[in-house]
Amino acid sequence: MALVCALTNEVPETPVVSPHSGAVFEKRVIEKYLLENGCDPISGKELKPEELIEIKTPAVVKPKPPSATSIPAT
Hints:
The protein has helices at residues 27-37, 66-69; strands at residues 15-17, 24-26, 53-54. The chain is an alpha+beta fold. It has a single domain (1-59), classed as 2-Layer Sandwich (Herpes Virus-1), CATH 3.30.40.
């Protein structure tokens, strides 16, 4: 199962979860949203940035470009 941000629909680099809705967000995106709106975008309940729960995940390893993984011509 992959974590996907409820706002951007992308895999978050720094995932956090809302205690009100249980939705996963990219930390920087939800913090900006909270500054502008002050509520959980899913449940509509008031939410403060310090209430967000950080999800501990292993570091994302970006795949090598195909040229770095191909077998050289012999």
